[in-house]
Amino acid sequence: MAYQFSQDSEKRFQRLIPQFPSKRSLILPCLFLLQADKGFVDQEGMQYIADRIGDPVSLAHVHGVATFYTMYNKKPVGKLHIQICGNISCYLAGSDSITEHVCSKLGIKPGETTSDKKFTVDEVQCLGACGFGPVAQINDKYYENLTPESIEAILSELEKQV
Amino acid sequence: MGLKTLLTTHVGAADSHTLNHYRSVGGYESQKKALTEMTAEQIVNDVKNSGLRGRGGAGFPTGNKWGFIPKTDKPKYLICNGDEGEPGTFKDRLLIEKFPHMLIEGMVIAAKAIDSHQGYIYIRGEFHKGIRIVEEAVEEAYKAGLLGKNILGLGYDFDLAVYSGAGAYICGEESALINSLEGRRGHPRLKPPFPAVSGLYACPTVVNNVETFCNVPHIIRMTGEEYKKIGTEKSPGTRLFAVSGHVKKPGIYEVEMGTPMKELIYDICGGIKNDGTLKAVIPGGSSSPILTAEEAMTATMDYESIASLKSMLGSGAVIILSESADLVETTYRLAEFYSHESCGQCTPCREGTHWVKDLLHKIKVGEGTEKDVELIFSLSRNMEGGTTICPLADACVMAVRPTMTKFKGEFSTRLKKEVSISH
Predict the structure, then answer these.
(1) Which residues form a coiled coil (chain A) (predicted)?
(2) A60 lies in which domain range?
(3) pLDDT classification of A1: cutoffs 50, 70, 90
(4) Domains of chain B (ranges, CATH numbers)
(5) pTM for the complete prediction?
């Protein structure tokens, strides 16, 4: 069946419409709704967004926007998306050891997903939590002041929930 | 001088983000005062008198920015920039999560000042928790009649919506943010026209940082004249400094402007981690030129002192580097950041940031030569001073060149020894 917004996304979409004088402004929020529904943004979903918003928004424009911003996953990610900050403050606090530890435990490299589709690891730019490094964002949540031991405990706890 | 709380007085209260708590400590009184007793002109003048300067990075006088809005029939838009993304910066997140109503109150007052009836709070997408908190606060404010049509029955209308960024540092630049809010790629716009004349949907627009808006209710409450007595002559008020790196107690500290940097590092933050020695300080976020330990010890935390050392107070992000820090590595990480975040519109930035990163990588792994160092300097001259639409390329240069100049030895010892052939 062709993709359409889930009930929840449809409700949010309807709430968004009156907030903007221009329909084009709906693209970024819609891409998040698509991602919430599917876990990533794909061609079918982007076409759906272009159609829902309508003229003058084309698939090409939606695609152009989606590929510009890093938070839109262009391919499926694991159930737990681990994004470890590697920028200056986190680096000074020892983020490399966190990335290495997580990657060696999971047997993957940054940018990869485990074969059971449970974990994806990414090294990302500054998450804006520099005083509490090393920091990782796992799905929607921040985990701060990490050590190799603490991240391992966090992951094994989270793994039980997925 | 030293610690002084104005914005963060109630940071310890677990429910500081709720309307109930905010009202119990005098919240929304300034909004009432502004809407009942003051004209738009009086608000602008009060903020001008306070000397408040933008807390996002550029430090532009806020009252003047508001004063640029032309009197036209076009809608005027008010935007809060909560895209906090400059490496080292993490102070707006605190305000967003702990004091969303202070932000909303500041925005309503600013709205009246510029005759705006629609505002947006743009928050970086990674701040899921902050976005949720602000959305809830906006809803609470609507229900209490503090937002929306006919606010408090006083005849002023102002609608406010929260907008999530999607992971692009460049959207912290105001014209890129506006493009993002319009549903486009986050490309900075050529200026002029400035947003005050043609911003969101080609209408007059003011974009201010979270911390800037949060100062506004306090200015209105105490009057601009009283506010100006805090801090220094040219940098009035307090500032939230986000301290990270090699200090014992990293974190966010609200201090009176003009406080010695030495006091911030050694007293407030407890000194250098592991009782090490200070090597350098990046005083205002990753794009502010690095200061040596000696320079840092003479600095005070205000715009003019840091500017006199040819750096910037910027976003208030203070990164402390001890003797143990590898400056080749940290400089490489910053160059990597700028190359990753370049939007790609302008050649000097799109190409330059990548070259600089690649050359620094070469130096870092011991493959670099003197020629590579020269090339970085030569490239940097083509990346700065108006060769690009926005200052991202300049920021990359500022993050790299001063470090390579002031800590030359650290880079040269990493260079590959040139093989000399004797005849």
Answers:
(1) none
(2) 7-68
(3) confident
(4) 19-229 (3.40.50.11540), 232-322 (3.10.20.600), 327-414 (1.20.1440.230)
(5) 0.96
